[in-house]
Amino acid sequence: MTSGNLLTDHPALYEARFPDPERLAGRWAEDCLRRHGAGPRVLDMGCGTGRDAAHLHACGRTVTGADRSEAMLAHARSHHPGPTYVRADLHGFDFGRAAHDAVVCLDSTLLYCHTNAQLDGFLASCRRTLERGGLLVAEMRNGAYFLGRTDLLGRTALDSFTWQGTTYRSRTTLSVDRTAQLLRRSRVWTTDDGSPPLVQHSAWRLLFPQELRHFLTAHGFDVLELHDGPGPRTEPPWREGRLPGTRTDADRLHLVARLRTA
Ligand SMILES: C[S@@+](CC[C@H](N)C(=O)[O-])C[C@H]1O[C@@H](n2cnc3c(N)ncnc32)[C@H](O)[C@@H]1O
């Protein structure tokens, strides 16, 4: 058995596993930016395969896509050209002062800030890179969903998909680490092409809405929107014209915050 991150290491497989043919995530992010009058310079932090960065570029924005995975960046440069793609760490990055009008951070990437110090590092970096009045737009799992709910925990979920003639099967278990305040995922991939099984461990910060508000306020942001949907990964999904809700009860959290001008 080997270890690694099958999907992050193989971006084409990532896109096959999580298809977004309608560019719903990119359209949702663009809608947030437009509704709140963001300027053109956008940083997509944790840009992954570059799909969303390229969509924002196609909307006329000047986009920097940043990720720590060289495999993701190489895929983004060749498959989703337009943005500038650079290697950077979410926990602390420096593109110079006031280099961007908005930072977007999609699909729970922000939750790879596991510790308070990493969250502080991310928000301090956002503050440095943003123009005064600039926006932070993020979309992630909602830690509060797990308060009193165990439907996703303590069971093994089986899944499979086929890509380029190979069937990939996964066995996934989720658990809550209350001490570290993390959602931990253990996943074993097997394929029918003779490769050895791949075991993968991931974790996301269980960040609660009021806690997030506190961090944002402390770093000089005003929260404009914080809600559980509709969004690109909710059911039913967001569509153009659908306005943000007011609750933070369901399993996704959507954030728009503005860096204070004074
Ligand atoms: C779930 S993917 C989301 C990709 C993309 N934002 C999307 O919505 O399709 C998370 C991404 O975050 C990146 N990532 C994880 N930890 C990171 C870190 N510390 N700094 C920068 N990128 C990181 C991974 O390489 C991966 O591309």
Q: If you had to describe this structure to a student in words, what would you say it looks like?
A:
- This protein has 262 residues and is α/β, with parallel strands linked by helices.
- The chain has 2 domains: 2-143 and 208-259, Vaccinia Virus protein VP39 (Rossmann fold); 146-204, GSPII I/J protein-like (Pantoate--beta-alanine Ligase, Chain: A,domain 2).
- The chain has helices at residues 6-9, 11-17, 24-35, 51-58, 70-79, 116-129, 209-218; strands spanning 2-3, 41-45, 62-67, 84-87, 100-105, 130-141, 156-163, 166-177, 182-191, 198-205, 221-227, 252-259.
- The strands form 2 sheets. A 7-stranded mixed β-sheet has the order 4-3-2-5-6-12-11, sandwiched between helices. Strands 1-10-9-8-7 form a 5-stranded mixed β-sheet, covered by helices on one side.
- Helix 3 (24-35) packs across helix 4.
- The longest helix is centred in the middle third of the chain and has 14 residues, at 116-129.
- Bound molecules: S-adenosylmethionine.
- Residues 8, 25, 46-48, 52, 67-69, 72, 89-91, 106-109, 112 line the site of S-adenosylmethionine.
